[in-house]
Amino acid sequence: MLCEKVFRSKQGKTVILRVYFDGKIEKVEITGDFFADEKDLEMLEKYLRDLKIPKIEIIGFDPEEILEKIKDCL
Questions:
Q1: CA distances to 30, 54, 72, 74 from 40, in Å
Q2: Is 12 left (phi over 0), alpha (psi -120 to 50) or beta?
Q3: In this structure, are residues 66 and 42 in contact, taking their beta carbons and an 8 Å threshold?
Q4: Which helix (H) or strand (E) is 18 found in, with range?
């Protein structure tokens, strides 16, 4: 199943979140007009599958916002 959320972050950036799940989260994809190192973004997507947040820096949104949107999908 796919859950897609498109929203404006508290910092004013557009974020597109896709959560693929089938009983558990299989994959998380995050795109949008924010700034992040590709490795940091991949790490965030990986951690979010387990509803965790790594210590990374992303300019344009707070990872907590993403976590809350994922919880809305479940």
A1: 12, 9, 23, 24
A2: left
A3: no
A4: strand 14-21
pTM of the model: 0.91
Please say if the pLDDT value at position 2 is more than 90.
yes
CA pair distance 72, 40, nearest whole angstrom:
23
pLDDT tens-digit series, residues 22-74:
989 999 999 999 999 999 999 999 999 999 999 998 999 999 999 999 999 98
Residue count (the chain): 74
Annotate 1-19 with b (16+ C-beta within 10 A) or e (fewer). Answer: eeeeeeeebeeebebebbb
